[in-house]
From TrEMBL:
GO terms for biological process: L-valine catabolic process. Its EC number is 3.1.2.4. Pfam families: ECH_2 (PF16113). Keywords: Hydrolase. It comes from marine sediment metagenome. The lineage of its organism: unclassified sequences, metagenomes, ecological metagenomes. GO terms for molecular function: 3-hydroxyisobutyryl-CoA hydrolase activity. The keyword Secreted does not apply. This is 3-hydroxyisobutyryl-CoA hydrolase. Residues 17-346 form the Enoyl-CoA hydratase/isomerase domain. The keyword Hydrolase applies.
Length: 352
């Protein structure tokens, strides 16, 4: 493959291994081929003493990575095949786990959209950079799915109920909120990205590590974080026991400072898949007490059932295939949720 065709680009300069997701027309959404290329390159660099640090980025000017290539999985399922679905998720999760445990420093440049599977890649990195253009999120409930790629581990470990809120609603956040919530470590103005590249190419390793050099260029002044202002309300509403209780609590919000946000959040939740939100809530609360490996195992346990029993097939149809944006969720509303059905998805999951 030429570099133009390759879905993942790999380069080593000045002891830094550069891994670039290279499907810009598809917002660098992950295919199985990309997952395998990334994992193979990372495993190779583990043994290569010339590579001391790895930097992950996305090609093009639209996204770091907008998730997994869910449309391909949908097409396979509609053709009667489920084998490829489990293969994709199990290998994607193995890649994410490798990044979390990687023995060399990993830096993630989270410029522009970082959604779903992109978050799975970036959240395992030791240094996560955002720019003023960054938009982060786990938007899975909007397509009838649940936050995976380790989301059941990193979301519930955010302060208070922030992770529950982000996972259940699927909202996107900007750089100030990402830094406040702990989903990013440093900020970098996008106009300094060329300077960053030359800085690393000229880096004197006897004086600085790449992480130290990056921190000399970075700043965190992206304005005030909305999540900081909303935090008392988020912590109160999203601590309720189930999705109907959370929705009712939001409807009852009377404080003028939070009333508009609460009403908008109810409207957003009413557009999401009820079963996906309910399973997400249970998933994240269980994940709070589990190891990273057990969280991935729990997500895979759900994946094995979700295309048959969850809302993802209908969500992808409505939003990505037919694009009528009118998904027929099952149940159709939050009022129709059955706690026994939610619990059933977790039946027979045994963690270590």
């Amino acid at each position: 493959m030429s570099d133009v065709q390759a879905s993942v680009l790999a380069d080593v300069r000045n002891h830094i291994g550069y891994l670039t997701l290279n499907r810009p027309a598809g917002l660098n959404a992950l295919t199985l081929e990309m997952v395998r290329l990334l994992k193979a390159q990372l495993e190779h660099w583990m043994q290569d003493q010339q590579v001391r640090t790895v930097l992950l980025s996305g090609a093009g000017d639209r996204a770091f990575c907008a998730g997994g290539d869910i449309r391909t999985l949908y097409d396979e399922y509609k053709q009667g095949s489920t084998e490829g679905i489990e293969t994709f998720f199990s290998e994607e999760y193995a890649l994410d786990q490798l990044i979390h445990a990687y023995p060399k420093p990993v830096i993630a440049l989270m410029d522009r959209f970082v959604l779903g599977g992109g978050m799975g890649l970036a959240q395992g990195a030791g240094l996560r950079m955002v720019t003023e253009r960054s938009r982060l999120g786990m938007p899975e409930t909007g397509i009838g799915y649940f936050p995976d790629v380790g989301g059941s581990y990193f979301l519930p470990r955010l302060p208070g109920e922030l992770g529950i809120y982000l996972g259940v609603t699927g909202v996107h956040i900007g750089p100030a909120d990402a830094l406040y919530a702990g989903l990013a470590d440093v900020g970098l103005p996008s106009n300094k990205l060329p300077e960053l590249t030359s800085h690393l190419d000229d880096l004197d390793w006897s004086r600085l590590s790449p992480e130290q050099a990056i921190r000399m260029l970075t700043f965190d002044d992206f304005g005030s974080a909305d999540l900081k202002r909303l935090r008392p309300a988020i912590d109160r509403h999203f601590a309720h026991k189930d999705i109907p209780s959370i929705r009712q609590s939001l409807l009852d919000e009377q404080n003028p400072e939070w009333h508009g946000w609460a009403q908008a959040t109810v409207k957003l939740m009413d557009s999401r898949s009820p079963i996906a939100m309910a399973v997400t809530l249970e998933l994240l609360r269980r994940g709070r007490e589990l190891s990273l490996a057990d969280c991935f195992a729990m997500e895979l346990h759900l994946d094995r059932q979700w295309f048959d029993k969850g809302d993802i097939v209908e969500g992808v149809r409505a939003l990505l295939v037919d694009k009528d944006k009118n998904p027929r969720w099952n149940p159709a509303s939050i009022d129709g949720l059955d706690p026994a059905e939610v619990a059933g998805f977790f039946k027979d999951f045994n963690h270590a």
